[in-house]
């Protein structure tokens, strides 16, 4: 709880500082000399650009969390469902195929959603040949 309090406290101080710079810029536009207006205007523009980049990074982080969370939720749900049905071998084989085919990469998401959907289909399939190898994903 204390950690979150400190984070919120820092965010509030940051937002208050940004508002003060904007207020100083408005005051400078009315009363201060030209060099002060240009300097504060530049600072305000840099703050706006950096806030836009931070917002974009934050939204990308949320998108990735939702993307992986949705795919993992389906996989866990299907795993629990099939384990409750007593299909331990089917779940184990599907998860092994997922492990073998998944490639971690910083450049892409490694087709995790496709692989997890394939694993769900493999778990829920009623075919008797559970040992058939699944072709690797390129």
Structure description:
- By secondary structure, this protein is mainly α.
- It has one domain (2-124).
- It contains four helices and no strands.
- It has helices spanning 2-31, 34-84, 88-101, 112-124.
- The longest helix is centred in the middle third of the chain and has 51 residues, at 34-84.
- The chain is rod-shaped, with a radius of gyration of 26 Å.
- The two termini are 45 Å apart.
- Mean pLDDT is 80; it is low at 127-133.
The value of Rg in angstroms is: 26 Å
Instruction: Say what oligomer this is.
Output: single chain
* Low-confidence region ranges: 127-133
Distance between the termini: 45 Å
Tell the overall outline: rod-shaped
The count of strands amounts to 0
Structural class: mainly alpha
Distinct helical segment count = 4
Along the chain, the helix and strand elements come as HHHH
Mean pLDDT: 80
| Approximate helicity band | over 70%
What is the number of domains? 1
Strand content: under 5%
Largest beta-sheet details: none
């Amino acid at each position: 709880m204390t950690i979150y309090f400190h984070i919120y406290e820092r965010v509030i101080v940051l937002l208050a500082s940004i508002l003060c710079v904007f207020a100083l810029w408005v005051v400078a536009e009315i009363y201060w000399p030209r060099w002060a207006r240009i300097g504060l205007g530049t600072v305000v523009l840099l703050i706006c650009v950096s806030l836009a980049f931070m917002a974009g990074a934050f939204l990308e982080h949320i998108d990735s969390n939702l993307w992986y969370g949705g795919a993992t939720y389906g996989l866990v749900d299907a795993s629990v469902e099939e384990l409750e049905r007593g299909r331990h071998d089917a779940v184990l084989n599907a998860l092994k195929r997922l492990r073998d085919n998944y490639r971690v990469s910083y450049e892409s998401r490694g087709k995790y959603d496709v692989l997890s959907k394939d694993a769900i289909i493999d778990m829920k399939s009623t075919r008797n040949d559970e040992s058939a190898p699944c072709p690797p994903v390129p």
